[in-house]
């Protein structure tokens, strides 16, 4: 079936954009808020695709508001506030850091 990109849902448009980017066989993929405004189900699908792309050897630079989900996938994490990096380190360590959890994960 043929469908114009402008008539697709937000999640479908994100998947299309990622697919188009992957057609060039990139070594690095920059994803800027790929789940913004999407339903929880579409967010899950986006994160599944990101994980699969990473497993295929593509380096991914992910900018994401959902810190918990991003840190679960990442090797390293960086926290920016007002354009400055205020925290960085191993993603798993950051995910379990009480300060990070309180400030960015709502705990």
UniProtKB/TrEMBL annotation:
Q: Which GO terms describe its biological process?
A: L-amino acid transport
Q: Which Pfam families match?
A: ABC_tran
Q: Name one GO molecular function term.
A: branched-chain amino acid transmembrane transporter activity
For this protein, the record's InterPro entries field holds:
ABC_transporter-like_ATP-bd, BCAA_Transport_ATP-bd_LivF, P-loop_NTPase
Which segments constitute the ABC transporter domain? 5-35
Which keywords appear in this protein's UniProt record, sorted alphabetically?
Amino-acid transport, ATP-binding, Nucleotide-binding, Transport
Name the family the entry cites.
Belongs to the ABC transporter superfamily.
What this protein is called in its record is ABC transporter ATP-binding protein
